[in-house]
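During the reporting period the student researcher (J.K.) took over the structure-prediction task from the postdoctoral fellow and processed the backlog of single-chain submissions. One of the processed entries is reproduced below for the supervisory committee.
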Amino acid sequence: MTNFTFYSPTKFDFGTDAESHAGSLIKEFGGSKVLLHFGGKSAEKSGLLGRVRDSLKASGLEFVELGGVHPNPLDDLVYEGIDLCKKNAVDFILAVGGGSVIDSAKAIAMGVCYDGDFWDFYSGKAAAKKALPVGTVLTIAAAGSEGSGDSVITKKEGMVKRGAGSECIRPRFSIMNPALTQTLPAYQTACGATDIMAHVCERYFTNTKDVETTDRLCEAVLMAMIHETPKVIANPNDYQARANIMWAGMVAHNNIVGVGRDQDWNSHGIEHELSGLYDCAHGAGLAVIMPAWMEFVYKHDVMRFAQWASRVWGCKMDFANPEATACQGIKRFREFLHSIGMPINFAELGAKEEDIPTLVKKFGLGDGRTGGFVNLSSDDIAEIYKIAAKASL
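J.K. obtained the following structure tokens:
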């Protein structure tokens, strides 16, 4: 295990009707003038936004509103939010929604406190040192943005999707009411579950030795997702299964399962080009890319993949041929994703094999390599896309 510093100060208010505490929590963390940031019409129709507004009013908080966040949130709304916050002297941002809304709120929070273009943080030109405080009311278990210091935004010009990270954008608090996820369509639920599992896998496949504790934590979260996800696909109103999935989503990405170990994240980067180009759901793209990445890299450390197959997927360990066990685990992963309604190849996702050169170019690696479990070249990334394009059960 490598040296690490782990700091996760987010306060979590978990349970039924927790959204009624939004106003008091904002006041607890020093907010007085709030940007209420949200997505589409569902939060309004469900009455959630009304309950949140009532909570803010009851706490004597002023607020302005900015809706319209789309999946794969765009930079133009971030610019609008930055301007709105500056004009209204906003000192706290409350994101009501899923990972896209929270990511957009984090980008606005950084941009308000920065003299330059907020995209500098996403293009690698600058690192955020200061941001407005952010709180969240989570409506979908997926991205883990409610507990992380990460954000992903798409730039409309060129449809480039990039991430930024800083401790200053880790939410001050996150309200997590599993009941709010019960109205989600099965497809969105499955996309969220896939994203959660991918966050764990990006940490699990590591070159760091002697990480038994975090190995076991990763395996436990994956096994919980395998156990609970089919339940909510069959019965969307299973509150307890929803609760387990919602907490798994936070644990998967606040880095408690990833400390002390090198991490990968190439699958996420490769997928970002798919959702950037085709505007597909991030989880659906990961369902296509992650097993393909595994097929391409597993020989780098066959025993780690065999361990994952045995411990997580219940494959019988073949000590005479651990490669067979490793491959069986990848097969079961893809089969599981398919069983919950996820696509497994380009055709099912709506992507085109002829666009692979464009996807590779957008990735922007050129003649360089991207580090991780296996250092990948542009040619390697093209091969992973090709595997994903033709994948089958």
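The committee noted the following: Strands lie at 11-14, 33-38, 62-66, 92-97, 134-138, 150-155, 160-165, 173-176, 369-370, 376-377.
J.K. will present the remaining backlog at the next meeting.
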